[in-house]
């Protein structure tokens, strides 16, 4: 158990005092300070404050997601969290991601200490930040809502967005999960990538463009990587298929 891994106890009522955060820097050093003094910390680079353990018979499914955005592994504690870290990795506006980035501490209305570790911290390319909690709608208890509301209040104080996310769109997850298999930069093979970008200057069905470039077994992995990296884009929200209309994307 990490030194910063604490029990999330106490009555989670509205906060009555200032927020504090505790986090683990990339070099392993630990810090705890007022949130107002920590808003400039690059939380997208910190180490997790909780461990991702696995054991026989456990109900949740933890693991590690290799992030193309971060260039390393990001931990998750459930399939829901895995889907959302995958979608963060796919988002072209996101430039940094960390999981279990910090402990947030405050006092409840009754003066009892409360703590909460959000699931993710993400940095966007414009410098803004978003703090994310993942919880299925049917599993949000009153105690959880109080913590989520307090976390949102804390984020508002330092100009971060807070998102409470449930199950994402299943078609989007299906498409991105497929493309994620080709997220590693090794799949951007030249000159095939350049030929595909030239071919799809005018939108056309996916397989028609692939066949115009070469053998599908060699071309499709490159196409899927270009869709992952948003150099190409496919029509949505239908499942990706041979007749999906593909065009140039937002990143080139």
TrEMBL record:
Highest taxon of the lineage: Bacteria
InterPro entries in the cross-refs: TnsA-like (IPR048000), TnsA_N (IPR014833)
Pfam families attached to this UniProt entry: Tn7_TnsA-like_N
Domain TnsA endonuclease N-terminal: 91-165
Protein name according to UniProt: Transposase
High-level lineage: Bacteria, Bacillati, Actinomycetota, Actinomycetes, Kitasatosporales
């Amino acid at each position: 158990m990490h030194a910063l891994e604490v029990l999330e106890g106490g009555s989670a009522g509205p906060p009555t005092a200032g927020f504090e955060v505790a986090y683990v820097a990339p070099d392993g050093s630990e810090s705890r300070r007022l949130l107002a003094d920590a808003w400039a910390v690059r939380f997208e680079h910190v180490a997790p404050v909780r461990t991702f353990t696995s054991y026989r018979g456990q109900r949740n499914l933890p693991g590690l997601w290799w992030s193309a955005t971060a260039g390393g592994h990001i931990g998750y504690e459930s399939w829901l969290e895995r889907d959302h870290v995958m979608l963060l990795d796919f988002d072209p506006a996101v430039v940094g991601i960390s999981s279990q980035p910090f402990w947030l501490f405050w006092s409840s209305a009754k003066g009892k200490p409360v703590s909460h570790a959000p699931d993710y911290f993400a940095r966007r390319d414009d410098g803004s930040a978003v703090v994310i909690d993942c919880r299925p709608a049917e599993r949000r208890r009153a105690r959880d809502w109080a913590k989520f509301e307090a976390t949102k209040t804390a984020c508002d104080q330092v100009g971060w967005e807070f998102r409470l996310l449930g199950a994402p769109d299943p078609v989007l997850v299906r498409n991105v999960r497929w493309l994620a298999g080709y997220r590693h930069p090794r799949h951007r093979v030249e000159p095939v990538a350049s030929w595909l970008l030239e071919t799809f200057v005018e939108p056309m069905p996916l397989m028609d463009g692939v066949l115009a470039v070469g053998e599908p077994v060699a071309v499709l992995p490159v196409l899927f990587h270009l869709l992952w990296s948003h150099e190409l884009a496919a029509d949505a929200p239908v499942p990706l298929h041979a007749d999906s209309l593909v065009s140039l994307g937002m990143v080139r």
